[in-house]
């Protein structure tokens, strides 16, 4: 983050749900079990649960007001500010990958779906685990063969941002970059989820460094900005 200082962020989880079926020729699917069907039903159930949670649970611990205000001028007219605010403040569950089968004329014997979840203190990682486990149990009780692989499990980082580290960084940055920098939470995740385990909300924590256009084809670090940050941290 080179345009703002970060003192808190959401958690992040990566889930893979595996569905097991039985292969057969597609001309006689009754001899097989299509692994994709129960996986689709699972995805729909999780999405329905997510929509319900989003309406009932509002994130308040992480204040994204400053970040939202900074985003507003660049938002396309087709985006509703309320929807952006809901995504920033609340739990986010996104099915990002799905695959199954090996060829068009065979009933697929296995299928996978991956989810990325951004958690908040009001609906934390343990609650997401319960949601996924209970949904798997429900579908397996009805004949599905689903299992889960939780391959990333990072808790939200919650600090107040009210400490001398943030104050000093903002003072030095104003001089080094000749502009003001807000301090705010972000929806992304950092190693602080591990480094700050067991620390309370008053622990001084800061993320601030060069880089722009993350996860885009032209993601980059400008050389001049890189050297400015060296001077910033030296000071």
Automatic annotation (TrEMBL):
Gene3D superfamilies: 3.30.70.360, Zn peptidases. Residues 7-143 form the Peptidase M20 dimerisation domain. Keywords: Hydrolase, Metal-binding, Zinc. SUPFAM superfamilies: Bacterial exopeptidase dimerisation domain, Zn-dependent exopeptidases. The keyword Metal-binding applies. Its cofactor is Zn(2+). It comes from the Bacteria. The keyword Transferase does not apply. InterPro entries: Bact_exopeptidase_dim_dom (IPR036264), Peptidase_M20_dimer (IPR011650), Peptidase_M20A (IPR050072). GO terms for molecular function: hydrolase activity. Belongs to the peptidase M20A family. This is Succinyl-diaminopimelate desuccinylase. It comes from Staphylococcus gallinarum.
């Amino acid at each position: 983050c080179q345009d703002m200082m970060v003192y808190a962020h959401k958690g992040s989880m990566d889930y893979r749900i595996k569905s097991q079926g039985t292969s057969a020729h597609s001309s006689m699917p009754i001899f097989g079990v299509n692994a994709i069907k129960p996986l689709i039903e699972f995805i729909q159930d999780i999405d329905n649960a997510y929509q319900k949670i989003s309406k009932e649970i509002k994130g308040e611990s992480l204040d994204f007001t400053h970040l939202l205000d900074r985003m507003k001028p660049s938002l396309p007219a087709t985006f509703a500010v309320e929807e952006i605010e809901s995504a920033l403040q609340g739990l986010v569950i996104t099915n990002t990958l799905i695959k199954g089968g090996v060829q068009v004329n065979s009933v697929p014997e296995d299928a996978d779906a991956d989810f990325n979840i951004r958690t908040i203190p009001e609906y934390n990682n343990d609650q997401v685990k319960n949601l996924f486990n209970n949904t798997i149990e429900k579908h397996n009780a009805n004949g599905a063969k689903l299992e889960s692989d939780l391959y990333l499990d990072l808790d939200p980082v919650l600090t107040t941002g009210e400490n001398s580290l943030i104050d000093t960084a903002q003072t030095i940055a104003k001089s080094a970059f000749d502009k003001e920098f807000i301090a705010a939470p972000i929806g992304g995740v950092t190693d602080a989820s591990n480094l700050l385990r067991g620390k309370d909300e008053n622990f001084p924590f800061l993320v601030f460094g060069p880089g722009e256009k993350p996860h885009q084809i032209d993601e980059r670090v400008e050389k001049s900005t890189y050297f400015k940050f060296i001077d910033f941290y030296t000071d």
